[in-house]
Amino acid sequence: MNSFEFKNFYILTIQVILAFLLSSLIIILLGASPLDVFKNIFNGAFGRPEKIVKTLLIFLPISLASLALIITFSTGLWNIGIEGQIVLGAIGATVIAKSFLGENALSPLYQLIIGVSFGSLWGLFCGFLKVKFNVHEIFGGLGLYFVGSGAIIYLILGPWSKEGIASTSGTDIFNKASWFPTFSDLNIPALPILIVSVILILSIVFLGFTKTGLKLKATGTNPDSTEKFQFSSGIYIFIAFAIAGGIAGLAGVFQASVFHHKLVPSISGGYGFLSILIVLASGKRIIPTMLLALFFSAMIAGGSQLQLRLNLHSSLISIILSSVVFFWLIVNSEVLKTKLNKLFLKDT
Amino acid sequence: MELKISKISKQFGSVKANKNISLKIESKKIHALLGENGAGKSTLVKIISGHYKPDSGEIYVDKNKLELGSTLSSISNGIGILSQDPLDFQNLTIKESFLAGSKKFGKYFREKNIEKLLNESFKKYEIKLDIRSKIKSLSIGERQQIELIRLLFENSKIIILDEPTNGFSLKQRELVFSMLKKLSNEGYIIILVSHKLDEVFELCKEATILKNGSKIKTIPIPYERKKIVDLMFKGDKSVNKIKNPISKIKKDNMHIDLKYYKKGIAKIPEGKKIGVIGLQGSGNDQFIKKIFDKSISITRIVNKEREMLEKENIYYTPSDRLEKGLFSDLTLIEHMALSDNRNNFINWKKIKEYSSKKINEFNIKGNLNSQAKELSGGNQQKLQLSLIPDQKGLLAIEQPTRGLDLNSTQSVWNKINERINDDICLFFSTTDIDEVWDQSDWIISFSGEKITDISEKKNIKKSDIKYFISGVKNK
Asked: Which of B292, B324, B338 faces A214 most closely, judged by CB atoms?
């Protein structure tokens, strides 16, 4: 192991230890035992096979949203609108599930096509505003997210309201044919797992081994130089938004048809925003992002256990997670890294 | 007044940046520190300004000994540095930037007094600027003039200029130089750090030549140029006369459509080097860019038919290397991968072999994983050149050697000259009369965004060019 890798490794260790210390401190302040909390979270996430499946169901959309964000971040874009793209994907899935196709055995396939297209279009729209009208993607994305979440409330209370009474608890449960097929008694979502694995591999190949991926990165570092290399930064911004929006849309489809089996107002679960933190904290690299996404999913899945067992409100998890990320980013900063290096690696 | 530097040495790791340097600089004699990149000029300047602490040695201003390594001590002894890029606030007006930046006025001040002071010094040094104009509307030369005034307001008595004329037009240079001469006559000590002999001869009365961290000699100016070059490069093998190949084969004429400049069609044979000269901002760089984006169309004979030149055969490099020519955060090898047009999948192993070959061939000081922004200007330019495909094409190169030292300049030209015989032709822009004269077969002159002359070099004299570029018709 050369010294560079060693340095990264020990900084990671410090980060993990500090993150645990910090969350323990928060837990102690709230009057509980950190050991109990961590044990319960772990059991809640991985304790029994069906719990692992639940963790996985949370991991799928988070990992997709994170991959989508890695692509836009590579292109130098702050795709805050990812939440909106997830919402549109879920709306796309519901369009199919609520139509005559919803009883068709191929409904999941149609949902994938429409949901991905909806998300992709929403992303492209944001890119269009940026390239053609010079609207910063943060504002464009946020605006489009508000439009999307307004639309979802309207749809749930209006055209897609429950039989008899409209309620913000969501639409009726989808027809069984619109659920994604699962296997074994544990309801393992085999198809979504397969799809996410394929997208994961494709992302690694796309960003690491294709010229298109490299051009996205080039556009992100310096759009003014693209003219000399005879490609247009605008087109690559579109490409990034189209791909990221599509992947986010897929996350939305999974949220609607794999997790909830219906459309609910908070269909995105805040996973888009959470993924922004995950991607930033893991330095926009794919594998660390996936690991961190898994960790976060486990925390969220295990967190629901806390209320039951320890009488702690499950929002405690959000507090812990966000403090951990916050702290993580501080430790990750170059300034602190240099200082840590000085402190612990005096000879190098 | 005098500045006395005594036995200064400074070592960084294994590199001896300054070796036992002693010299004396007096007022009324503008002094040049001459030397190639890496000669130790910047280190010495940073020691004088207090940014570096030398390993040994002393510095005196008159009888006062400087506390070395303390910028505060240097400033309070009247040492002021004018850096290459003016450090100013783009969005403020000239007056506001003085209010914000100068300690002279204290916490409480009256705007009227400041206006009066500023206007007085502007008048004294013949700066024709309105103190209410925004800094960003000024040229880089004007901004350096303002920075000089600021140094005076900070009570600097010793002014060190670190390669201040990068990006200057001739006229801006004259303005700044005349101000410096005036200051020198008033008793200020002026030190010019440079590797450009022309400006040293124009401005200075004395020069100290540094090489590899040691002082070679202090000489009076004027001095025989050839001897100075010999002193600067003594022992360097790489400095050969630039090879300038002459093609003997008769080639077809290209037709260059200049209707944008209301000039009709220029006919120039293929395989030639066409220098486009003009002052900064005269439109000569834009000419090169227009060839690239085909606003100027060029036709040539291919298989006995006259054909328009395709964009993929035009190889262009802009003068803003890092801003428009390269991707600052991408590595060398990533740049090579981007320039490889074969297919969408990247075979990193192949690219790696290819890149290593190119890095060697172009003698780029950096490794495969160096980011473009980590390279020096010369190496960035070599990287740009190494990205040009090997296939025959038209080279359109903006300011090939801007800001480069002599060594890099020569290797850049050698690289271009190696291939130009097999290329369609070379268009390059420059602001340097020597360069255009040495390197071109044809010369296009620009003044005020207009073409003032197009001639084959053998039909004009070198001394004509300065008239062409200043827009004076009468030779």
From this structure: B338
Cβ contacts below 8 Å, chain A against chain B, sum to: 57
Residue A2 has pLDDT above 60, yes or no: no
Mutate to test the interface with B, among A204, A222, A224 (most CBs of B within 10 A): A222
Q: Residue B26 and residue B206: Cα distance in Å, rounded? A: 10
Q: Is the pLDDT of residue B273 over 80?
A: yes
Q: Which residues of A touch B (CB under 8 A)?
A: 209-212, 214-215, 217-218, 220-222, 224-225, 227-230
Say which range, A148-152, A330-334, B118-122, B142-146, has the weakest mean pLDDT: A330-334
Distance CA B151, CA B472 (A): 36
User: ipTM above 0.85?
Assistant: no
Residue A347 has a pLDDT of: 46
User: Whole-angstrom Cα distance, residue B267 to residue A107?
Assistant: 68
Q: Tell me, what DSSP letter sits at residue B400?
A: T
Residues of B with CB under 8 A from a CB of A: 292-293, 311-312, 316-318, 322-330, 334, 337-340, 343-346, 348
What is the pLDDT at residue B402? 83
Name, in order, each residue with C-beta under 8 angstroms of B7's C-beta and a sequence gap of 6 or more. B20, B21, B22, B56, B57, B58
CB atoms within 10 A of CB B4: 17
- DSSP characters over B218-258: EEESS--HHHHHHHHHTT-SS--PPP-----S--PEEEEE-
Q: What is the pLDDT of residues B226-236, one digit of tens each?
A: 788 777 766 55
Q: Do A221 and B327 touch (CB under 8 A)?
A: yes
Tokens of B320: 């803003």
Bond prior to B222 in cis (omega within 30° of 0): yes
How far away is chain A from the Cα of B333, in angstroms, using its nearest Cα? 11
Please report which helix (H) or strand (E) contains residue A239, including its range.
Answer: helix A233-254
What long-range pairs does A99-104 form, CB within 8 A, spacing at least 24? A102/A174, A102/A175, A102/A177, A102/A178, A103/A175, A103/A177, A103/A178, A104/A177
What average pLDDT does range B395-415 have in this prediction?
87
Question: How far out from the chain centre does Cα B155 lie?
Answer: 29
If DSSP codes are grouped into helix, strand and coil, which group holds residue A204?
A: helix
pLDDT in tens, B242-267: 555 555 566 788 899 888 888 888 89
- B324 CB neighbours in chain A (<8 A) are 224-225, 227-228
List Cβ neighbours of B194 (8 Å cut-off, separation of 6 or more): B32, B33, B34, B163, B165, B200
Identify the pLDDT of residue B154: 82
- pLDDT at residue A348 above 70? no
Which residue among A210, A215, A224 sits closest to B324, beta carbon to beta carbon? A224
- The pLDDT value given to residue B251: 76
Q: How many CB atoms lie within 10 A of CB B209?
A: 21
Q: Give the model's pLDDT for residue B473.
A: 55
For residues B288 and B284, give the distance between their C-alpha atoms in angstroms, rounded to a whole number.
Answer: 7
Interface mutation target, options B295, B345, B346, chain A, most CBs of A under 10 Å: B346
In a mutational test of the B interface, the residue from A211, A236, A239 whose CB has the highest number of chain B CBs within 10 Å is: A211
Taking residue B403's Cβ as centre, other Cβ atoms within 10 Å add up to: 18
The helix/strand/coil state of A177 is helix
Query: In which residue are the tokens 């360069």 written?
Result: B435
Whether the per-residue pLDDT at A4 is higher than 60: the answer is: no
| Helix H or strand E encompassing B159 | strand B158-162
A222/B323 Cβ within 8 A:
yes
The string of pLDDT tens digits covering residues B75-118 is 889 898 887 767 677 788 888 888 776 666 666 667 777 888 88
Q: What is the pLDDT of residues B136-176, one digit of tens each?
A: 888 777 888 888 888 888 888 999 988 776 667 677 788 88
The counts of H helices and E strands in chain A are 13, 0
